Amino acid sequence: MLEKKETILTGDRPTGKMHIGHYFGSLQNRVKLQNEYDTYIEVADVQALTDNFNNPQKVKESVLQIVLDELSVGINPNKATIFIQSMIPEIAELTVFYSNLVTVSRLERNPTVKTEIAQKRELFGESVTYGFLGYPVSQAADITAFNGTLVPVGEDQLPLIEQCREIVRKFNSIYGETLYEPEAKLSNNKRIKGLDGNEKMGKSLGNAIYLSDSENIVKEKVMGALTDPARIRKDDKGHPEICMVAYYHNLFSSQDEVKNVCSECKAGTRGCVACKKQLINAINNYLNPIREKRKYYEEREDEVKEILMEGTNKARKIAKQTMERVKKAMMLDY
Ligand code: TRP
Questions:
Q1: Is 139 in the pocket of ligand 1 (CB under 6 A)?
Q2: Domains in the chain: boundaries
Q3: Could you tell me if 26 and 187 are in contact, meaning their C-beta atoms sit under 8 angstroms apart?
Q4: Ligand 1, atom 11, residue with closest C-alpha
Q5: DSSP string, 95-109
Q6: Spatial contact of 319 and 88, defined as CB atoms under 8 Å apart
Q7: For the whole prediction, is pTM greater than 0.90?
Q8: Taking the domain 7-192+301-329, which CATH number applies?
Q9: Which residue has the higher pLDDT, 161 or 271?
Q10: Atom 5, ligand 1: which residue's CA is nearest?
């Protein structure tokens, strides 16, 4: 067996700015993990193109935004390596090698891929592209190129990690122990609901609060958030369990404040507007240090690009070493 030193490998598709759902779902966890493990964070621009091939501009612009989001929440470039997928050709090369080890029907059965294809009917029509169907293979290359052993993900990504593990096992059984088999590290953080009460906060759903939203935008969004629809007058008794304002108080306010908010709402002694104003303050207080850091980096775009290039150079060295091992195992070491 290969000697195992835990390495975190994680990635994001650059298709827009990150919102508080990303923050509570994964970013917050990454900031912690970077102190405990060797951490690699991939800006997965090649993967983003699998469903945005007709919009390269969006992907390009989002790369910088994603890096700004990472840095502003506290990813420390001295601890974590942030790099860009398209600048590591070894990932593409590995993808080709791995594609022999996975069947088309296995990819078609991948639950994550299946769901996504169904959601992207408009883009793919009746027949999905080869590239999109195959992105789990490319993601297996993302992970193994850097010897990733722990992949912090939400539940929706589990089938991708499982597929990566299968590819690694198949590779190792045919060509000899060469690749590290990763494990998913399920974040216990829950998925954050949208401002409209939708189970998912998402760009396309228009129900998100972005980490880069200004104080005024946060105010506007919270004022429009879903509250108990049965509550018409201020002294109607409320139901915080179905109110998104109460839900977000749970994330941004102290336990005492949450208790107060809920009991006053239930008693009909607190109006929704007051409750929303208090939440707006809490969210803005929470986001202010993140906004400040973002501003620092926004004013120093060259520094951000340098961080990304340095990270990419460092990551590429590891990928080259992996490629050497892989080519040797596959008898391609000419
Ligand atoms: N598929 C992931 C997502 O949509 C992004 C991603 C790309 C990724 N490469 C990765 C995640 C490698 C973990 C490991 O969020």
A1: yes
A2: 7-192+301-329, 213-293
A3: yes
A4: 11
A5: HHHHGGGS-HHHHHH
A6: yes
A7: yes
A8: 3.40.50.620
A9: 161
A10: 12
